[in-house]
Amino acid sequence: MAKHEHAKVAVAATKPTWLKVTYDQKKVDKMEDMLKGMKLNTVCAEANCPNLGECFGSGTASFIILGPNCTRACRFCDIPHGNPQEVDLFEPLRVAQATKKLELSHVVVTSVDRDDLPDLGADQFVRTINAIRELNPDTTIEVLTPDFQGRTDCLDKVIAAKPDVFNHNMETVRSITPKVRNRATYDCSLGVLKYVKEHAPKETYVKTGIMLGLGEKDEEVYQLMDDLRAVDVDFLTIGQYVQPGPKNYRLREWVPMERYQKYYKEAMSRGFKFVASSPLVRSSYKAKEELEAVYNK
Which long-range contacts (CB under 8 A, 24 or more apart) does 119-123 make? Predict the structure, then answer.
């Protein structure tokens, strides 16, 4: 094996201590059994999130609708790519019932990409938001949507349902986007965030998230922050990319904590209302606390 190949293997193999999280396995098993019994998927399990134990252990989850198979195959992602299932019109009710059963005060709803559907999945988001509100009128709702191919008719449908937070992830800086995202572009995602901010009710916060460790440079991250603030994005999450498997995009770096702290300060100085920047941060991790922090200001 060549010297540079040894270095590549060493980055992925030398996992930092913060990846070794502990949790109550019995609580996790109970949560998984309940969700399977209700025929629901969570992004926590489907994407192998490192926070699964903490979130499941505390009785919270981010629901993934229209899955489990995605019509795209982004190189950073662990969600299965394959033939999508028929749209389950009873799924929104089950999500609402699970939200009530778990007594969630804040719920996150995301989805796989459904480029095969005429509405790209927008109608199912609306049905899910409405079902949650009907059974859980006091629960705040966050959606984490795909780019809907930039189609404003799809965005208008979701906006009209008035989620409390509209989240769409940029994922990474401009130069790396074409290397890791399938069919999605930097400008399309930025355009989605811009459109939502301009057309959603003022009460709806706009949010996005990025991963570190893909080979991005400081100046590229700062440019991304500037691009986001130029369209008035409210919330930003920054977390570590963890390579799901050998066929996924190669991890370039375990980013040190000092850089997360530096990015947090840089982002806050640019005017974001809330920034979460730490290795284990994911776009829906501690979403409830994030919204509460803004409400309580």
Answer: 119/154, 119/157, 120/146, 120/148, 120/149, 120/151, 120/154, 121/65, 121/66, 121/146, 121/148, 121/154, 122/148, 122/153, 122/154, 122/155, 122/157, 122/158, 123/157
154 is in an annotated binding site: no
70 annotated to a ligand binding site: yes
Q: Is the pTM of this model over 0.70?
A: yes
Q: Write the single-letter amino acid at 237.
A: T
Residue 160 C-alpha from the chain's centroid: 21
Average pLDDT over residues 209-214: 97
Residue 46 has pLDDT above 50, yes or no: no
* Helical (H) or strand (E) element with 274: strand 274-277
What does the pLDDT look like over 89-109, one tens digit per residue?
Answer: 999 999 999 999 888 888 899
49 annotated binding-site participant = yes
- The reply, when asked if residue 188 is annotated as ligand binding, is no
Q: What domains sit in the chain, N to C, each tagged with a CATH number? A: 22-296 (3.20.20.70)
Helix axes 25-37, 91-101, angle to 10 degrees: 150
How far is 101 from 96, CA to CA, in rounded Å? 9
Strands 235-240 and 274-277: parallel
